[in-house]
């Protein structure tokens, strides 16, 4: 299955440079940047699975999926770029406020806090957004019409990213079948077959991301991306 993802990554990387976008259009700029991240994260996931470094791979998939959700929302919802800007400005404002409280790791920002915080608040106030707070991840999935993904396998990706008890035990503890004792396992041998679902799903979403970007930019090559997406889908269905 990893070869299916590899094919999708290769196609996407070969065609990315041909996209043209308006560098004064925030929606287009954010969309192109998000799509580039989607390609690189797909390559990172493939590399981890291909080299059998499975720990961390689902964390990469989680980041990939969240980028895919943002790209889909940029396509579906007008002014969704404001939601991304809102999230970024709020993060900057909170860092400056924390710096002003004396956080050691943010001390280089203190000198900018008094000047920047009011201007950030003004920028935030001007944005037309859905809520008064940045969108939660569940709301983003809902807007992207991906509630089943959010309630289905996204929790597994989060468990890996947050090193939940289940993830820790799965990665590093094995049961000795002779006496039922627990043993430490570092770089536990796992089957690539365990990742077939993610490999296939990511390959299809990666090609669909290209279709979404074509729609956002009005790129005439959308039929080319649709053809490649259908080809990948056919290969997935053949092996599943």
Automatic annotation (TrEMBL):
One Pfam family this sequence matches: DUF5677
The domain of life for this entry's organism is Bacteria
Q: Cite the InterPro entries for this sequence.
A: DUF5677
Protein name, as recorded: DUF5677 domain-containing protein
Which source organism does the UniProt entry give? Answer: Pseudoalteromonas rhizosphaerae
């Amino acid at each position: 299955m990893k070869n299916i993802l590899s094919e999708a990554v290769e196609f996407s990387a070969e065609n990315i440079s041909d996209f043209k976008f308006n560098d004064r259009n925030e929606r287009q700029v954010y969309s192109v940047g998000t799509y580039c991240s989607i390609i690189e994260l797909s390559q990172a996931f493939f590399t981890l699975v291909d080299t059998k470094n499975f720990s961390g791979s689902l964390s990469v998939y989680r980041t990939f999926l969240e980028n895919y959700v943002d790209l889909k929302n940029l396509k579906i919802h007008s002014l969704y770029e404001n939601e991304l800007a809102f999230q970024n400005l709020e993060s900057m404002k909170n860092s400056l406020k924390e710096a002003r409280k004396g956080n050691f790791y943010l001390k280089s920002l203190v000198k900018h806090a008094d000047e920047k915080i009011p201007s950030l608040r003004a920028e935030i106030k001007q944005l037309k957004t859905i809520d008064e707070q940045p969108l939660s991840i569940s709301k983003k999935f809902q807007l992207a019409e991906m509630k089943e993904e959010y309630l289905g396998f996204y929790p597994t990706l989060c468990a890996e990213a947050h090193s939940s008890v289940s993830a820790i035990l799965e990665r590093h503890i094995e049961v000795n079948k002779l006496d039922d004792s627990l043993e430490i396992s570092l770089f536990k041998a796992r089957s690539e077959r365990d990742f077939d679902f993610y490999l296939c799903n990511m390959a299809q979403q990666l090609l669909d991301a290209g279709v979404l970007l074509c729609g956002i930019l009005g790129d005439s090559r959308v039929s080319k991306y649709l053809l490649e997406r259908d080809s990948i889908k056919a290969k997935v269905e053949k092996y599943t």
